[in-house]
Amino acid sequence: MIYYKFLIYYNVILFIIITLAYKSFQQNSPIHENNGTFKFFHKNANIRVRINDLLFQRSHQILQNLFVWQVQNAVIENQLQCFPEGCVTIYDFRITGVTLPKTFTLNPLPPNLLHLQMEMFDMDIQAKVNGNLQMLLGLPLTGNLIVTARSLFMPITLELQKTVNKVPIAHVTSCGLASGSVSAILQDAGVLTDIINIRYANELNMKAREVVESTLCDNMNRMVSSQINSKLKKFPRFLNVYEVMKYLDQVQKRYSRHITHQNWFPQRFYSQRYPRQVEMEISKTEPAIGSVKIVTPHIERNLSDIFDFKKLKNINIYLDIIDTSSSKTDYIIGIDGSADLIDKSNAKTYTNTFRHRNSLPNFPKNIKPKMLDVIIDGSILNNLLHQLWRNNAFNVKIDKKFPEFQHILKTTCTLDEVCISDSIPEVGENYPDQFLIIKTFLTSPPTAKANHDSIIMNIEGLSIFELEENGKKIGQIPFTAKIIINVKFIESSSKIKLSLEVPEIEIHNTVDFFGLEPEYLTSLKTGAVNVIQKFVNSKLSNGIDFQPFTSHLADMFGVYYPTITFLDSGELLFQSDLDVHRLYYSPHFYQ
């Protein structure tokens, strides 16, 4: 149960990293496969990333600089131009001048495209001409071709596609000169200069326009390939839960503010070893049955004592793009976000107890958009819980290493102590002077639903009681329980407060515990709940400070003013503004 608290913390931070790692670019259209055919998916996106108008406004400067740099370094292939009198080769092209467009915009275009528009820019090109024309006599033609393009207007549409290997790529779907004047004249061709310029002015101008248009469009494709797709292909297709945990642990340590906080992560993600000294003091004047004195070293226990974090290595969260859509003001990417096991050979099987949504998670209409909005469906949490259960991650063992549970684990005790025989005498009568081990596992996957201030979980499990001495099983208690994790965001602070309560727990009639009926186990049930609540809440008392993570996002990726909101619909909303230049040029983003 302690793991549940950690799970919420993990989910919030994990999906921030996921969504920021996938920062790429209201009718829904399936995303293209790379072969040009449509692929219809039978599942919905669990994560929707919405890029809003302000982010497009801040992005065009980067694209403009990249485009101009690409054009200035363009390589134009040799051209063949034929006339009735013969053909000439145009070669050694050089772009001698390019001006920045006065207007350069990037906007979403329904139903699922991006529209790039460059307006009012100029371009100058020079090339050499060589060939032979059969006029009255065969005359060699050599000279220079001067191409002048003025007030160009060039619209381009882009589409986010993916390869057959599910790697996202941007693709130029249309490109061409919509308007502008393009002219060409021949120079230094001797007596043929004026003849060619007068007789073949239209042919030269058409060839010049063709060269300018192909140069611009070819270089747009090169820019998309070298500057955008080269980065898109580095985006992860999945995230390993364990590796994300380690990354978050490193971030927390790096940005520590020298304030003592509860360590939510296992120490360096290694197994911890603790001494297990037990002193037995036998009094000569009192019965031995009540004289067991335990001297347990005071060691702060954390989650790694109960939960085996290495089991997280077997779980990936997949980031396959499911769909894309556009309105006039935003562009939305739908991401899978489902979890699955890597190795399923030892996995449990169970029919899902939660329903997948038939509709996409929707952004609330009453929110003020930031540059980036991300909505995460509540089914992701249930899916992750399901995979954790399949991987036997919820198997918990409680023994006397945990002093908080000793009064439940001791079968007998002195008059001034508390032990399990105080509420269940049959335990002490049958097994005096013993310690118990309680092994608890869930018999079905847990389910959860979040709202604006809490997360409600329902679990069904079985607790097996064994003797520590020889491992003999002495009873088992099947149960169902409701667990509420209260979430409180502290105003004017980067902290959130978490607390746990167990308002409902029911012992099933199939209980096998010294022949007792469920109603006779009420005191044991109440005591166990109180201990669990006290133990977990003591670990949560310091709250969770998000300052290390917000600082990391700002420093490394240019992510500013992030906010997290739990919606009553069970969804999680993440919003943030971005420094687009820092994000694009960050060396950390594409590692």
Walk me through this protein's architecture:
This protein is of the alpha+beta class and 591 residues long. The chain is 26% helix and 34% strand. It contains 11 helices and 25 strands. The strands form 4 sheets. Strands 2, 4, 5, 6, 7, 8, 9 and 10 form an 8-stranded mixed sheet that branches. It has a 7-stranded antiparallel sheet with strand order 1-13-14-3-16-25-24. The longest helix is centred in the middle third of the chain and has 32 residues. The radius of gyration is 34 Å and the shape is elongated.
Fold topology:
Blueprint: H1 2-21, E1 29-30, E2 32-33, E3 47-52, H2 53-72, E4 79-83, E5 86-98, E6 103-109, E7 113-134, E8 138-162, E9 168-175, E10 179-187, H3 192-199, H4 201-232, E11 238-240, H5 241-254, E12 315-318, E13 321-326, E14 330-335, E15 339-341, E16 372-376, H6 379-390, E17 396-398, H7 406-409, H8 425-430, E18 436-442, E19 447-450, E20 454-467, E21 473-489, E22 495-507, H9 522-540, E23 544-545, H10 547-557, E24 559-566, E25 572-578, H11 580-585
Parallel strand pairs: 2-8
Antiparallel strand pairs: 1-13, 3-14, 3-16, 4-5, 5-7, 6-7, 7-8, 8-9, 8-10, 11-12, 12-15, 13-14, 16-25, 17-18, 18-20, 19-20, 20-21, 21-22, 22-23, 24-25
